[in-house]
Design brief:
By secondary structure, the chain is of the alpha+beta class. About 15% of the residues lie in helices and about 40% in strands. Strands 1, 2, 3, 4, 5 and 6 form a six-stranded mixed sheet that branches. Helix 2 (about 60-75) packs across helix 5 (about 150-165). The longest helix has 20 residues, at about 60-75. It starts with a helix and ends in a 5-residue tail after the last strand.
């Protein structure tokens, strides 16, 4: 059983634990979810949402259908659900509201989601019920509010709550992705939702703003810019919409990575004349020099426990992947292949590091375990770079030119489910946030 099968088994265990605890939503489920040598996803069906008597125009119907469509996409994206759809033989019964629970069992569903949409002023109210079909028993109910303009928010909130209550996992529906985009000749920093929607421009400067990363709690973004003629490190603070300089030392100041405990910002500085990795505090004060080598040491990425850093160094002749602890000792080399390894990203689950490797002039994304064994290739076509893990460790966002220009793409941990995000400009260097509130 690999680690993700173990993850899913754990998710099923948490399902049982959750329902044993029988929280305020009076949820419970037993006996309908099976596991074994192969993992069974939770098969769930979603009935068409019903409208209250006051919601009868086309706008309301479209609103309900849009929420349902996004909810289906979210549940499938989570990798915990198989959303089953009724075949054509049942469409007539659906149209006449003549379905019963046994019919849902016939199409393979274990659970059924029912929704009722109402409206109070400018806010829609979506009531969601989940029925354990085999026992004909309500196991979950909750209510969600959303504005008439933001149906995506109510769909994502619904998906997040369903995932948490049915599997014990938080998911990624409240996360965002920061990236740089070149639109009309200028490269600036942008933020979008996890699914590529609602992109917002963060920086507006004639300089080149790039290589942005999130802080440990998502309240700020560190990035590199040449706006003052040198590659310096800056920080954008969401609360007051301000930018301050973190490091503008002589030489390069770039490739920041914030430790998961928030204590350090690892960055590449060339103040000694050679690119080395330093640990800074949030204000930019140097706390420690981490690497000492004749080669270029760069691209730090933190282990989830904030005790180790993986990085790229060409000290052996060409760029390879190394790991060291935060005292700069116990340094070890992980990769011994390829002529150029780059862009490491340590999984938040701790057991894998994603990276890119140059092959025939293009980069492909791999994962490798933290012993340097079991390298696994995730991409094959185009040039694919700068992987970044979702906080649940089940998805990766990356840069790819497979369609011609560089765009942001997401894929599952095993390379399946590749999907391009619909964003403007030439997009590069994504970084996936932690769960945000």
């Amino acid at each position: 059983m690999n680690r993700y099968q173990q993850i899913l088994v754990l998710g099923v265990f948490l399902i049982c634990l959750f329902f044993i605890q029988a929280d305020a939503q009076k949820s419970e489920v037993t006996g309908t979810i099976t596991t074994g040598p192969t993992i069974s996803l939770i098969s769930i069906a979603i009935d068409d949402f019903k409208l209250s008597d006051s919601l009868l125009d086309l706008t309301d119907t479209t609103y309900a259908d849009s929420i349902k469509a996004i909810l289906i996409d979210d549940l499938i994206f989570s990798l915990y659900f198989n959303v089953v759809e009724p075949d054509s033989a049942f469409l007539f019964d659906f149209a006449n509201n003549d379905m019963n629970l046994e019919d849902w069992i016939y199409i393979g569903a274990q659970m059924l989601i029912k929704g009722r949409l109402d409206k109070h002023g400018e806010l829609y109210t979506l009531n969601i019920d989940v029925i354990d079909i085999f026992r004909n028993k309500m196991i979950y109910t909750n209510q969600f509010l959303g504005s008439s303009l933001d149906y995506r928010t109510i769909a994502h909130k619904t998906a997040a709550d369903l995932l948490l209550n049915l599997t014990g996992e938080r998911g990624v529906f409240d996360t965002k992705i920061v990236y740089s985009s070149q639109i009309k000749g200028n490269r600036d920093i942008y933020v979008c939702n996890f699914d590529g929607t609602n992109p917002i421009r963060i920086t507006k400067d004639p300089g080149v703003d790039q290589i942005a990363v999130w802080s440990y709690n998502g309240d700020r973004i560190y990035f590199t810019s040449d706006r003052k003629g040198n590659h310096d490190l800056y920080c954008y603070v969401f609360e007051n919409d301000e930018i301050y300089s973190v490091s503008s030392r002589k030489g390069l100041n770039y490739a920041a990575a914030v430790s998961p405990d928030g204590k350090y910002v690892a960055a590449t500085l060339s103040i000694s004349g050679n690119a080395e990795i330093y640990l800074l505090d949030s204000s930019g004060r140097i706390m420690r020099r981490l690497t000492y080598s004749w080669g270029i040491d760069t691209s730090p990425t933190w282990s989830p426990n904030s005790r180790e850093i993986a990085f790229i160094s060409d000290r052996s002749g060409n760029p390879q992947l190394y790991v060291t602890d935060i005292d700069g000792i116990n340094t070890r080399r992980l990769t011994y292949y390829g002529d150029y390894i780059g862009d490491p990203a340590w999984s938040p689950r701790g057991d894998y590091i994603a990276y890119c490797s140059r092959e025939a002039g293009q980069f492909q994304i791999y994962t490798v375990d933290i012993t340097g064994q079991n390298a696994y290739k995730l991409t094959e076509i185009g040039s694919n770079e700068v992987p970044s893990w979702s906080p649940d460790g089940l998805h990766i966002v990356y840069t790819s030119n497979v369609d011609g220009k560089y765009d942001l793409w997401v894929m599952n941990f095993d390379g399946s489910g590749k999907k391009k995000l619909n964003l403007n400009g030439i997009c590069k260097s994504p970084d996936w946030s932690v769960n945000l509130r």
